[in-house]
Design brief:
about 15% strand; disordered N terminus; five-stranded parallel beta sheet; alpha/beta; 2 domains; Rossmann fold; elongated; 11 helices
Length: about 260
């Protein structure tokens, strides 16, 4: 009995992730052999660790599908409703909920917490070291210039968001101190005079359907100033891994 118990304890947990943001934590921290499945968004272009998906099964958050995989741990950010999560827990499956992070200090804490939750503290320490190096290597390309973040849907971001932290670390001064994510109508856009526009998702054909960002007036305002194009995968999910793209962006600069 003791031998069997030791063998069972030595077996790494089988892990499933339920959504695109949870995928990043699982693919970034858990060995591929221990990942039973990831979400059906794991290999999309805005998935940072999509190159690690390989032959890992991709699934939708359906109870029967997940139970059939017999995972020990399910990781999620927004995937799966309350009923699904309760049923998983009823079957003895550990559910790890990933918290929203609004800056890189919080991202560091969440990296360590989730690493512990999925039984991969060593992987978290390795990623944390790489993460700290990336932060240290971010170049000051803003040099105090004002910047306004703008997405195709017409939303901008304030200093208390991950976008705000990213732009500040790049050396920019935010054009507005409005908190959170907020809508800027084309009329309001005309009143803003940032030195630089920080853009995201303008290369996404789906995001560009019938949105304020398609307005000729808005496009002209944006075209008349330098643009900093933020990587879509760094904007899609907030986490430590986005620092790697931001470091690379700081080496390229903006047009």
């Amino acid at each position: 009995m003791l031998g069997a118990g030791v063998a069972q304890a030595a077996n790494p947990p089988r892990v499933v992730s339920l959504d695109g943001c949870a995928d990043q934590y699982v693919l970034g921290l858990v060995p591929q052999a221990d990942i039973v499945a990831v979400s059906d968004r794991a290999a999309l272009p805005d998935s940072y660790f999509r190159d690690r998906v390989g032959t890992i099964r991709r699934v939708k958050p359906y109870l029967e599908t997940i139970l059939a995989l017999e995972p020990d741990i399910v990781v999620r950010t927004w995937g799966g409703d309350l009923r699904l999560l309760q049923r998983l827990q009823h079957h003895g499956i550990k559910v790890v909920n990933i918290n929203d992070v609004y800056n890189y200090d919080q991202a560091r804490e969440e990296l360590f917490r989730v690493g512990d939750e999925v039984g991969q503290p060593a992987s978290a320490r390795i990623e944390a070291h790489r993460f700290e190096e990336a932060l240290d290597n971010i170049h000051n390309i803003g040099r105090g210039r004002s910047v306004l973040y703008y997405s195709p849907s017409g939303y901008s971001a304030g200093p208390d968001t991950m976008v705000g932290d990213i732009l500040t670390r790049l050396g920019f001064r935010l054009e507005t101190q409005t908190k959170g994510f907020f809508f800027l109508s084309p009329e309001v856009m005309l009143t803003k005079k940032p030195d630089v526009f920080a853009l995201a998702f303008f290369d996404d054909k789906v995001s560009m359907r019938r949105v304020p960002g398609r307005s000729p007036v808005v496009r002209k305002v944006i075209a008349d100033r330098p643009n900093l194009v933020l990587p879509s995968r760094a904007m899609a999910c907030s986490g430590w891994f986005t620092a790697y793209d931001i470091e690379s962006l700081s080496l390229v600069g903006f047009r």
